[in-house]
Amino acid sequence: MYTQAMDTLGKDAEDRKPVRSAEQAMLEARFDARIDDGAFIEAKDWMPDHYRKTLVRQISQHAHSEIVGMLPEGNWISRAPTLKRKAILLAKVQDEGGHGLYLYAAAETLGTSRDEMLYALHTGKAKYSSIFNYPTLTWADVGAIGWLVDGAAIMNQVPICRCSYAPYARAMVRICREESFHQRQGFESLLTMMQHGTEAQKAMVQDAVDRWWWPSVMMFGPPDDQSPNSAQSMRWGIKRISNDELRQKFVDAAVEQAKVLGVTLPDPDLKWNEERQHHDFGAIDWDEFWNVIAGNGPCNRERIAARVKAWDDGAWVREAALAHAEKQQQRFKEAA
Ligand code: BYC
Questions:
Q1: In a mutational test of the pocket of ligand 1, which residue from 127, 128, 250 has the highest number of ligand atoms less than 8 Å from its CB?
Q2: Neighbouring C-beta atoms of residue 79, cutoff 10 Å
């Protein structure tokens, strides 16, 4: 059901004139040489179809993750404990919506419309990050998302600022600046509870960390030897650092931060390995991961239903904007 749409280019791709094979080989060789030189590819440049499709797949999945990611935290806006926390959370959730817009715009430069991408999301053809299929049960979950989920996201996203496709790389520069703030606000919110909170609040933080830790570790995707897209994406400079390497960097950073917070991470096998100069960690439950991305996580159905409802409820806004644009165009024509 959740097979990722590699065909979201749809009609456009069919309409594109096939290139003769000798010419194609030359174009591909030139493209590969540019990638090897570390050049950035712009929307107007020639690119292999598979490169284009891979980017549409990844960028649209990323965009969907941002707007679906607004839902778990949005759940707490009306119940934030203070005006200050409410203002911060409102701004954060709004930022995620903005990230979605930058990313949909970047994907549109590859010839796929936003409507097509959203259709793929609403019909379950497109994936979005596994992490947003878990529920936010307490206020501490909001802080844990900021600390762990945004923390994992930054680890993954900073290398994408050097992605070979320039419109994606440019979008990521802005996104990463905002994500760094998100991570800090989550950490600070948890630190406040751990340092000044009641015993019940401290226990609430630990419970949130216990529930969000493993899903955050899974966010980086399957192990490198089971990641079907990694080799080609690394070759093309779409991905710069592998899933497992990024996961390791995240674990190493989080262990130190957990010490400052005064929480434990729910992994008895987590320990420093002097030889590797990294932390070893326990086995990841990959069955849970594949089950969640197959559509069977705790909140998958609820998340998609909320997005479809938002789309339906917003129909009048889209219609009004189109009618306004048509009216303006008509007036412009008459004046000319
Ligand atoms: N969840 O071959 P692989 C945020 C899929 S939002 C679901 O390694 P790839 C935030 C993968 O798509 C941040 N699916 O794939 C927002 C592939 O399936 P398809 C979101 C996953 O693409 C609001 C299959 O598994 N960040 O920060 O080379 C509030 C095999 O994987 C996941 C991004 O989207 C997953 N976790 O690498 C707070 C970053 N992992 O498509 C915060 C951009 C893997 O072949 N994306 N799959 O059917 C990427 O960097 C890469 O796409 C991934 C996966 C590392 C995620």
A1: 127
A2: 12
210-247 confidence digits (pLDDT tens): 999 999 999 999 999 999 999 999 999 999 999 999 99
Which helix (DSSP H) or strand (DSSP E) does residue 279 occupy?
strand 278-280
**Residue 110 β-bridge partners:** none
* Dist. CA 239–CA 128, nearest whole Å: 17
Protein residue whose Cα sits closest to atom 44 of ligand 1:
221
66 lines ligand 1 (CB under 6 A): yes
Per-residue pLDDT reduced to its tens digit, 124-177: 999 999 999 999 999 999 999 999 999 999 999 999 999 999 999 999 999 999
User: Which residue minimizes the CA distance to atom 16 of ligand 1?
Assistant: 66
User: Phi, psi (5° rounding) for residue 41?
Assistant: -100, 130
Whether 228 is in the pocket of ligand 1, judged by its Cβ within 6 Å, is yes
Q: Which of 99, 103, 96 is nearest to 59 (CA)?
A: 103
92 close to 142: Cβ distance less than 8 angstroms? no
Is residue 131 within 8 Å of residue 217, measured between CB atoms? no
Tell me how far the alpha carbon of residue 222 lies from the centroid of ligand 1, in angstroms.
Answer: 9
Cα atoms found within 13 Å of the Cα of residue 53, Cβ hemisphere only: 15
Ligand 1 center to 325 CA (angstroms): 36
Q: Which are the contacts of 194, defined by CB distance < 8 A and separation ≥ 6? A: 202, 205, 261, 262, 263
| Ligand 1 atom with the shortest distance to the CA of 58 | 52
